[in-house]
Amino acid sequence: MKGLLLSAALGFLALTAQAADIGITAQEVHARAQQADARLLFVDVRDPVEIMFVGFTDAVHVNLPYLLVDRSAWDEQRGAYRVVQNPKFVAEIRAELKKRGLDDNAEIVTMCRSGSERGEPSAALLRANGFPNARYVIDGFQGSAIKEGPQAGFRLQNGWQNSGLPWSPKMNPEKMYRP
Q1: Torsional sign, CA 128, 92, 68, 111
Q2: Interacting residues of 5 by C-beta distance below 8 A, sequence separation 6+
Q3: 140-168: pLDDT as tens digits
Q4: How far is CA 115 from CA 19, 43, 119, in A?
Q5: Residue pair 137/111 in contact by the 8 Å Cβ criterion
Q6: CA nearest to 102, candidates 60, 125, 131
Q7: How confident is the model at residue 2 (pLDDT cuts 50, 70, 90)?
Q8: b vs e for 76-96, b when ≥16 Cβ sit within 10 Å of the residue's Cβ?
């Protein structure tokens, strides 16, 4: 019984350590992306339509959506178009690594709008598919929504956009996803 409890405790500690090392701040990834010798693939995992309305940073290497908006299917519960996982995501990541002369052990950093719906799950998926150094930008591109006050609901704190890092309302067509 003690062995089982010890094994469970060690497993929990390993998961906790993985959760701690899977997230990276916007400032940290920006600094890493500026290093000429960085073995890094920085990926914006948002749907290109979202980028078109929210903004983009040219610091990312490529836009490869983790989730795609299916404009032919409506989700009644959410009151929005259905979102489906990009079935080619892992293969497209692998192709981008190869294109840059990187292997599966390179650091891959994913960034979505907030860090939670696509950023962290995409990094976890990559780790589960043989990319041990996949991470995600904590608080994503736009950051967290303010909870109270006159600006409640607006994403005006933390994240890439609110950290003084370079971004633009314009997209870079060379980096945008085109299936």
Answers
A1: positive
A2: none
A3: 999 877 788 887 766 777 899 999 999 99
A4: 13, 13, 5
A5: yes
A6: 131
A7: low
A8: eeeeebebeebeebbebbbeb
CA-to-CA distance for 138 and 164, rounded, in angstroms? Answer: 15
Tell me which residue has tokens 């995992």. Answer: 45
pLDDT above 90 as % of the chain: 75
Convert the pLDDT of each residue in 7-40 to its tens digit: 444 444 444 344 558 999 999 999 999 998 999 9
* Global pTM value: 0.85
What is each CA distance from 131 to 41, 106, 171, 175, in whole angstroms?
A: 12, 8, 28, 22
Domains recognised in the chain with CATH numbers = 22-163 (3.40.250.10)
Tokens in use for 34? Answer: 């500026």
Mean pLDDT across the chain: 88
Q: Which two tokens stand for residue 71?
A: 């404009």
- Helices of type H across 55-170: 89-99, 119-128
Residues with Cβ < 8 Å from 86, sequence gap 6 or more?
Answer: 64, 65, 66, 67, 68, 92
